[in-house]
Amino acid sequence: MSEVATKTLPVQPRKKQKKLKPARKQVKPGDVVKTEAVQTGKEYNIWYNKWAGGDREDNYSNKVKSQTRCNIKRDAGLTRANTTGNKYTCLFFARGCCPYGWECEYRHTIPDPEDVLPDTSKDCFARDKFADYRDDMGGVGSFNRQNRTLYIGRIKECASAAETEEVIIRHFKEWGPIEKIRILQYRSVAFVTYTDEFAAQFAKEAMACQSLDNDEILNVRWATEDPNPESKQQEKRRLEEMGQEAIRERMDPRIVDAMRAVRALEEGVDPNDAEYEVEEMEDDEEDEREDGRQTKRRRMEIEDVQPQQQQPQALGILSADTIESLKYFAEIRQRTGATPVPVVKKALLPAAPKPAGLGLADYGSDDDDE
After folding, report:
1. Helix (H), strand (E) at residue 272
2. Rounded to 5 degrees, what angle do the CA atoms 226, 124, 136 make?
3. What is the mean pLDDT of the chain?
4. How far apart are CA 176 and CA 109, in angstroms?
């Protein structure tokens, strides 16, 4: 049995970025020679970036260790993108093999989560996202879900889980603040969750086919959605808080102060009181909890009622729905003064004469043709 070790790291404040110098050229043209995998198929699949009909993509025979690796402290710097206003990051910089340096048209820094990209359907490298993930959870990703968690496979574990955790944190914290890490001991698998999605996108490219302290070749891809209900609730609350914060930032502060003053006057307290702000936050949290309890209560009531609502059973030729419809038409005739229609009580009755006025006489049947 494999043991699962989950650790939530304390949120560290983002360090102030130092004044950058011009970015250096990570490699010289021609230094990196791309080695192609042996062709084992007949057709090249551009979606999976491999030859179709050959070996599986995750076989060691098709994985080659990356020849370069990005070093943020040494490689980060200013490029032409800082003057032209381009907010996208250089993909080759993340992989440690950009030969242009300060002449590059893309940024040579870790993406800033506070930056708003021009197109939300693209990742931080200006690559188009897709509606669905690939079957192997590789590639660019999906624009239908914000994914901040990476699947790290083929890890050569240390003697203890604590040592393995320390190695993973040391190698992955370089790309951004880590929210939590989860290790599947004895399975050589770990899940790393970053505080923002841009850091996860950068780390996925920076650590693909890299090694930790041992000579392994990491398999880095997107993680599937966590089935834990608590994790889903936390992610939902986080997205709601982000949305509320974005709305508050775009609202006029005077309107926010006026709304707070009106609410304070209704409650008869001083709007400038610090205790009132704390109570206001507690009230909002209590309202959210109450909404959750009401939703759960309604769901339980629906579940209690649903078993009682059974499908009407047929009584002979006529079903219960048909009988109820006839009762309804009979009540209408009584109100309009028309001749009432006898209520059908038994399943098999002799054919009744067609009533005049509103009724079923306008509808034909097979008997009318005879």
Report:
1. none
2. 45
3. 77
4. 11
Alpha-carbon distance values, 246 to 80, 121, 147, 243 (Å): 30, 19, 19, 5
Quote the CA–CA distance of 261 and 362 in Å, as a whole number: 66
Q: Determine phi and psi for 281, rounding to 5 degrees.
A: -65, -40
Q: How many CB atoms lie within 10 A of CB 23?
A: 25
Q: At 222, is the secondary structure helix, strand, or coil?
A: strand
52-99 pLDDT tens trace: 766 554 455 567 889 999 999 999 999 999 999 999 999 999 999 999
Contact between 156 and 143 (Cβ < 8 Å): no
Start-end of H helices in 210-346: 229-250, 253-267, 274-305, 320-336
Cβ 56 vs Cβ 80: under 8 Å: no
Residue type, 359: G
Beta-carbon neighbour count of residue 15 at 10 Å?
7
- Kindly state the DSSP code that residue 207 receives in the 8-state scheme: S
Place of tokens 């130092």: 18
How many CB atoms within 10 Å of residue 128?
A: 10
Q: What is the pLDDT of residues 117-173, one digit of tens each?
A: 888 899 999 999 999 998 889 999 999 888 999 999 999 998 888 999 999 999 999
- At 348, list the tokens: 């098999």
